[in-house]
Design brief:
This protein has helices at 2-38, 41-53, 55-71, 80-96. The chain has 102 residues and is mainly α. The chain has a single domain (2-92), classed as PDCD5, DNA-binding domain (Helicase, Ruva Protein, domain 3), CATH 1.10.8.140.
Length: 102
């Protein structure tokens, strides 16, 4: 009886993990579709390069690009030059937030 309960719990946990993984894959697929519409080929390649080096930063950047496109704050598709400008802005925002101690 106890063994069956353990098996049932493990099966339930596995099913939950599989469902969560499937949801994550669906979200990633939807992001890819949107980014294909939002970015031109060179910009997509640059984003892929960033993703290889800094995956966490690339995820944030993808979400920001999608937001920019959805709110209409940029012309579509975003070119590589526009993406570079966005990256410079993000980089300068990071640098402005320095704290100097005396």
């Amino acid at each position: 009886m106890e063994l069956e309960e353990i098996r049932r719990r493990r099966l339930l946990a596995l099913q939950q993990r599989a469902a969560e993984q499937q949801r994550e894959e669906q979200v990633e697929a939807a992001k890819k579709v949107v980014l294909r519409k939002v970015l031109d080929q060179k910009a997509r390649q640059r984003l892929a390069n960033i993703k290889m080096v800094r995956p966490d930063f690339a995820q944030q950047l993808e979400l920001q690009l999608i937001q920019l496109a959805q709110t209409g704050r940029v012309d579509l598709p975003i070119s590589d030059e526009q993406l570079i400008q966005i990256l410079y802005k993000l980089q300068s925002e990071k640098r402005d937030a320095r704290i100097n101690r005396l």
